[in-house]
Amino acid sequence: MSEAVKIKLSKKDLESDQDVRWCPGCGDYAILATVQRTLATLGIKRENTVFISGIGCSSRFPYYMNTYGFHTIHGRAPAIASGLKITRPELDVWVITGDGDGLSIGGNHMIHALRRNMDLKIILFNNQIYGLTKGQYSPTSQPGTRAPSTPTGSIDFPLNPISLALSTGATFVARAADTDAKLMGKILEEAYKHKGAVFIEMLQNCPVFNDGVWEGVKDDPAGKQIALAEGKPLLFAGGTKGIRLGAGLVPEIVDVGEGAGKVPASELLVHTERGSHLYANLLAQLVQPKFPMPMGILYREDKPTYEMLANQQVHEAITKQGAGDLTKLLYSGMVWEVGADGTRH
Amino acid sequence: MQTKQLDRVVIRFVGDSGDGMQLTGTEFAKAAAEAGNDISTFPDFPAEIRAPAGSLFGVSGFQLHFSSSEIHTPGDAPDVLVAMNPAGLKTNLKDLVDHGTLIVNTGAFIEANLKKAGYQTNPLEDGSLSKYKVHSVDISHLTMTALDGTELSTKEKGRAKNFFALGLVFWMYGREPESEIRRIHQQFAKKPEFGEANVKVFKAGYHYGETAEVFQTVYKVPPATFAPGMYRNITGNEAIALGLVVGADLAGKKLFYSGYPITPASSILHSLAKYKNFGTLTFQAEDEIAAMGAALGAAYGGSIAVTASSGPGIALKGEAMGLGVMTELPVVILNIQRGGPSTGLPTKTEQSDLSQSLFGRNGESPLPVLAAKSPGDTFYCAIEAVKIATRYMVPVILLSDGYIANGSEPWPLPNLASLPRFDVVHRTDPNNYFVYQRDEKTLARAWVVPGTPGLEHRIGGIEKDALTGNISYAPDNHEKQTKVRAEKVARIAQDIGELDLSGPESGDVLVIGWGGTYGALRQAQQTLLAQGKQVSHAHLRWLSPLEPGLAKIIRNFKHVIVAELNMGQLRQVIRAEFLIDVVGLNKIQGLPFKVREVQDAIEKLLTEAPKPSASTSQPLATA
After folding, report:
1. Which residues of B touch A70 (CB under 8 A)?
2. Domain tally for chain A?
3. Best A45, A72, A320, A331 residue to mutate vs chain B (most B CBs within 10 Å)
4. What are the boundaries of each domain within chain B?
5. Based on the domain organization, do A315 and A285 belong to the same domain?
6. Is residue A145 in some structural domain?
7. pLDDT tens figures, B128-143
8. CB–CB of B229 and A90 under 8 A?
9. How far apart are CA B191 and CA B189, in angstroms?
10. B256–A87: do the CB atoms touch at under 8 Å?
11. Which of A326, A327, A332, A335 to mutate: most B Cβ within 10 Å?
């Protein structure tokens, strides 16, 4: 992935000649710009970079990247990306998906790509709504979401994308908001360097069908977000509040400081990206409106990737058995010769 | 004791699905092949892995036809039936020829088993078997006796009884026991105590034949004559796997195979997973859709990408196949057909996915479709599918079926050096590159793979401009692209070889078939032709585009009959294509055609005057 000689690219080099067609004010613009800007600084080779998407607003993304791109079918991007990555492990493969594409119709492919630790950089744009089909509620919508398909309010419970990613085996799990270019850039850089299944939940605003759904998190970052920092306690609200682990592993919000009713910072949970799954899952449970949401890299782990192991098995077979000999293969099993007289010899 | 020479024998082994009948049949087939006979096999087993012992639905069978002359099918009716239990006898006796030989394991004819099989009285005692040559042998007991003094449990001993039956038929047909003994030891190399026990029982069966005075005759089926060369015995799924590996090599590329477990396609994945030293990558995907998706991804990356399934799985792959049509990527899709619809008859054969292959996707979505006619032919069809997919940049469907997949035949080994190469070249020149710029002859777009500098581009399922490949909703462009996708498939006709026609180019009856029915159709036609009847048989390898050779002859016959194991799917295509009357011979029983059924249908037509009315298109029912 990291090249010996870094190639200098500008953001412009990563822009395709196609007009970007998202609605005015869509959070996707900011994500696209940040991806282009960040990748340009990382020394990538455009020809070795592939963006693969499913169906939905976010999935138009590959058309706007001046790299290789494949706009596939609804929910199947991780499967198509897996076939590419297994056979061409040297390529950088990014998957762009959304809450409907990646967690509803394509949920099965998502969990298995993560389970296998396939080296795919999956960015899931979560806007809690189906945009392209005009506003139906999605698997991440809050209960009671009024939408054309649920005029009296949705009645099913949402799933937690981070929780799902952790439990299925993603080895790099992060979250950023579309408005926070700085954090997004940092996460993208770390994700690019990570060897294994990356899952980034991008909190993205749909100004047409679900405007402001993340405002509770985004309008007051200091108050509603925990900026995760390695080795630092889980603090928010300008450092006046923090997260402590109570009895029964229940996270609780406490006032931080000295004095009555306050808790010293030393009693708070301290963030580590390479902590236990238990800790990362606990972070995943911190969601609005009850909790501030942790932003940044929630979890990472080094583990062999699927495509590496698959190609290693091929390599080992060739080393042990020698490169395949087709004649030998065809002539294996019970082989006999029929002579010129037409009978068996 | 006398020795009687026979030209050909059809033998069927039947018993519980846990009785090892498939192994017995396979081993006896190997012995026949080893003795130089021509062979054809037909395994017929239930979908249940271990159905309740003694039940009618749990009966597993294996039919073997071995002969001193050339044969095309596993035989219409068994001359010999080896029944390991009452349920096997009950479900198979009706097929045994009159005065046929019946070998019965009397040890299994106990009251409980008789009841499970629905026998009111014991058929061995009530005279109902009087028209057969019955040999009653207590195989269960003799197996136990042979294993007296071994460490094995009673249950383990009981499991060896199929080897007693195998030993017995080895003796009956004068087969050489030594190489079988070697094979048993090899097969059980990891559990030598079982290998030892099975050899003991096998020998006991063999010696029983020799010493017990129940058999008065030993039969001898002399070797058949074959064209000179090297041979091996092969099943369709083994041959198709080999064809894929060879096809990828001829294309100068690596093979990627993705699949999801499904009967009767799974064994292709099992074979290919062992061929890693050929650079073959296999991927057991999370579902059928992912298997198709991964194949597309691998094709996009420049591999020879293949996925396989059976009807229900192909249905799931349909949308992703359409993406392959739209993005014009070379993928080979194998459909090892089974009885449908829905789960249908997973372990039985049928040809009912032709319409699905031709039409089973949304939109105008034509694909090339070809079908293999025999186990060995799957090898060549797999190579052809790879060649056409890469030459025309299109997904190709190759149809096989459960009958070909599991059936075996002696296979003349190909001379690899004689197979023409079709090395793939990926475009690397960035000058004047347009995604949908096409080759004049094949209409294929260039196969540009990621990693090629200066050729970065985007593809996808949305309609694209006929040149640039950018998204286009322009009305004329869509019509143009739709037509060019169809024309591309039509042009494959220029790469299709001679029509496989047996018999004169004109006459009274033309039998048209495709796929695994080849053997029965060809044998029926040749028999009737030898009797002086003007009957020809055209067997189609290519179904989309239709074999060009068919148009030249189809109007030269008084009657055209399309024989297929479905309700008339090819017949519908032929009628639409040629606007002529066509009669159907159709069978939907999960079983292959019998030669007799085909002959009867043709003879019936020969006695009828041609009727141009639509009513003759009704299928001729088979028994």
Report:
1. 297, 300, 327, 458-460
2. 2
3. A72
4. 2-220, 233-418, 500-620
5. no
6. yes
7. 999 999 999 999 999 9
8. no
9. 6
10. yes
11. A326
pLDDT for the residue A1: 45
Q: Do B281 and A330 touch (CB under 8 A)?
A: no
Vertex B391, ends B387 and B397: CA angle to 5°?
Answer: 55
Mean local confidence (pLDDT), B343-348: 95
d(CA B26, CA B23): 5
Q: Is residue A299 part of a domain?
A: no
Nearest to A324 among B277, B413, B450 (CB): B277
Quote the minimal CA–CA distance from B227 to chain A in Å: 6
Q: Which domain holds residue A49?
A: 1-213+304-345
Cis peptide before A289 (omega within 30 of 0): yes
Let me know whether A185 and A321 are in one domain.
yes
Question: Would the CB atoms of A80 and B293 count as touching at under 8 Å?
Answer: yes
* Residues whose CB is less than 8 angstroms from the CB of residue A10 and which lie 6 or more positions away in sequence, other chains included: A40
pTM to 2 decimal places: 0.94
Contact A72 B35 (CB under 8 A): no
Give the separation between CA B376 and CA A42, rounded to whole angstroms: 53
**Per-residue model confidence as pLDDT tens digits over A145-173:** 999 999 999 999 999 999 999 999 999 99
Cβ contact (<8 Å) for A86 and B294? yes
Residues in A closer than 8 angstroms to B454, CB to CB, are 47
Does residue A178 lie within any of the structural domains?
yes
* Partner-chain contact B460 A68, CB within 8 Å: no
Q: Hey, what amino acid is at A328? A: K
B10-45 burial by CB neighbour count: b if 16+ within 10 A, else e? bbbbbbbbbbbbbbbbbbbbbbbbbbbbbbbbbbbb
Contact yes or no for B381/B541 (Cβ under 8 A): yes
**ipTM of the complex model:** 0.96
Enter the tokens of residue B250. 């001829």
Same topology between domain B233-418 and domain B500-620: yes
CB contact under 8 A, A343 and B36: yes
pLDDT score recorded for residue A82: 98
Q: Is A12 helix (H, G, I), strand (E, B) or coil?
A: helix
Handedness of CA A217, A222, A226, A229 (dihedral sign): positive
Is CATH 3.40.920.10 what the domain over B2-220 is classified as, yes or no? yes
Residue of B nearest to A88 (CA): B301
Is B233-418 a domain of CATH 3.40.50.970? Answer: yes
Which residues in chain B are closer than 8 Å to A326, comparing Cβ atoms? 245-246, 249, 278, 416
Could A50 and B450 be called an inter-chain contact, meaning their C-beta atoms sit closer than 8 Å? yes
**Residue at B246: amino acid letter:** V
Annotate B196-258 with DSSP letters as a single string.
Answer: HHHHHHHHHHHHHHHHSTT--EEEE-PPPP--SEEEEEEEHHHHHHHHHHHHHHHTTS-EEEE
A339: nearest CA partner in chain B: B228
Q: What is the pLDDT of residue B613?
A: 46
Residue A252 and residue A124 share a domain: no
Same domain for A180 and A280?
Answer: no
**CATH class belonging to B500-620:** alpha beta
Chain B residues with CB under 8 Å of A68 CB are 450, 456-458
Give the whole-angstrom CA distance, residue B507 versus residue B529.
Answer: 11
d(CA A46, nearest CA chain B) in Å: 7
* CA B203/CA B196 separation, integer angstroms: 11
Q: Is the separation of the CB atoms in B450 and B440 below 8 Å? A: no
